[in-house]
Automatic annotation (TrEMBL):
GO terms for biological process, alphabetical: base-excision repair
Catalytic activity: Hydrolysis of DNA containing ring-opened 7-methylguanine residues, releasing 2,6-diamino-4-hydroxy-5-(N-methyl)formamidopyrimidine
Recorded family membership: Belongs to the FPG family.
Pfam families: Fapy_DNA_glyco, H2TH, zf-FPG_IleRS
Name of the protein in question: Endonuclease VIII
SMART domains listed in its UniProt record: Fapy_DNA_glyco (SM00898), H2TH (SM01232)
GO molecular function: 8-oxo-7,8-dihydroguanine DNA N-glycosylase activity; damaged DNA binding; DNA-(apurinic or apyrimidinic site) endonuclease activity; lyase activity; zinc ion binding
Matches recorded under InterPro entries: FPG_cat, FPG_N, H2TH_FPG, Ribosomal_uS13-like_H2TH, Znf_DNA_glyclase/AP_lyase, Znf_FPG/IleRS
Secretion signal span: none
Cofactor(s) required for function per UniProt: Zn(2+)
Keywords attached to this entry: DNA damage, DNA repair, DNA-binding, Endonuclease, Glycosidase, Hydrolase, Lyase, Metal-binding, Multifunctional enzyme, Nuclease, Zinc, Zinc-finger
């Protein structure tokens, strides 16, 4: 799933390459991605792109008084092309859900919003105010803008596990499964630690880790081509998606916890005092 650093990089790409162009045509190949119908996507035609923005893990194009906003969800992506094919998309054919031509179709650049797999969760809105997107309206403060004192206040009201709290967009916006693993590993915190019970030192370590991990990832991601962002993300991960490999800090084996259709990774030596946490696949007891 694209998280704050990747979405920031995609938005930066749109700022540099889409701003100043006029939207020639918007093709919708999957009606299910549209979450708003008034105004329709055709209302974007002939509007100049004035900028691009990020709200947590949402990205959007600004075109004067209207915004085209997307949430890429787990398997969505933005694919840029210096010249898109002119033919309209065929509904239901292939992974492309929506296409934006930035100029005359067939003679201009643009981008596709794509989604792999069978679980279709990519979502697109056309609105005159980003706050009309329900998920944006309820976002917590952006992860890169949260200060140490603010983080302490946010955690004080959270009785859940810190892993869950970090990925709750209503508490802190922008962090997903991968970077929460990286942040907790850097902060040397168990994913099962209770958020409200973290000590002042632990809160400080979490704040420093959150900013360090995300800032480093943004620095590595911004300027990359959209096609290389996923590989860049994987290359910078220390524990996430590295089950069975040695921790780069202590060489202990990176372990995994799985539940439902998700999994996350941690290092016992760095994060849990050497204790291997129970996996739901093996036990109902998470200690």
């Amino acid at each position: 799933m694209p998280e704050l650093p990747e979405v920031e990089a995609l938005v930066d790409h749109l700022r540099r390459h889409a701003a100043g162009h006029t939207i020639g045509r918007v093709d919708v190949a999957a009606l299910s991605v549209l979450k708003t119908f008034d105004p329709p996507p055709t209302a974007l035609h002939d509007r100049a792109v004035t900028g691009a923005q990020r709200w947590g893990k949402y990205l959007g194009l600004q075109t004067g008084g209207l915004f085209l906003i997307a949430h890429l969800s787990r398997a969505g992506w933005l694919r840029w092309s210096d010249r898109l094919a002119p033919a309209p998309l065929r509904p239901g054919k292939g992974p492309i859900a929506l296409r934006v031509h930035l100029g005359d179709p067939g003679q201009a650049p643009g981008f596709d919003l794509t989604e792999a797999g069978t679980q279709k969760r990519l979502a697109v809105w056309v609105v005159d105010d980003p706050a009309r997107v329900p998920g944006i309206a309820t976002l917590g403060p952006d992860a890169l803008a949260v200060g140490a004192d603010e983080l302490a206040r946010l955690l004080a009201d959270q009785t859940g596990r810190i892993k869950t709290v970090l990925t709750d967009q209503k508490v802190i916006a922008g962090i997903g499964n991968a970077y929460s693993d990286e942040i907790l590993h850097t902060a040397r915190l168990s994913p099962f630690a209770t958020a409200a019970k973290l000590s002042a030192d632990q809160q400080g370590a979490l704040h420093d880790a959150m900013h360090a991990v995300l800032t480093d990832a943004v620095t590595r991601s911004v300027g990359q081509q959209a096609a290389t962002l996923k590989g860049e993300k994987r290359s910078g991960l220390r524990v996430h998606a590295r089950t069975g490999l040695p921790c780069p800090v202590c060489a202990d084996t990176v372990r995994e916890i799985s539940f439902a259709d998700k999994s996350f990774q941690y290092c016992p030596t760095c994060q849990t005092g050497g204790k291997v946490l129970a996996d739901r696949r093996m036990s109902r007891l998470l200690k």
